[in-house]
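Project standup — Tuesday

K.O.: blocked on the structure for the chain from last sprint. Re-posting the sequence here as requested.
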Amino acid sequence: MARLSSHVIALFIVVALVCAFVPVFSVEEAEAKSLWNTCLVKITPKCALNIIYVVFGNGTLIESCCYDLVQEGKVCHDNLIKYIADRPSLIGRKAQYLKKRDDVWNHCVSISKTA
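H.V.: unblocked you, prediction finished:
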């Protein structure tokens, strides 16, 4: 239970950090706010955190999160991961993260089609 709580807290910290950096990006602030409001409600915090761990770390993708991700949609997935990857501390490995983002998406779509 404590582990789940720490994951949820970590997710909210990541979201807060990303939101803090949104004005730096090329997307207009109002558009970014709309994106966050529409995208983050489509995926559970557990799955969002799992996908972040897979793309930016060495996490193992939970298969049930693939269904959430596909329901969230490619535009939301692409933009949310791009916002995180554009952080100055991560920018040096942005291409690697964007490739992992695409690999996760393709894997999840293939799983969702077979279900």
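K.O.: great, moving the ticket to review. The chain has six helices and no strands. Residues 25-112 form one domain.
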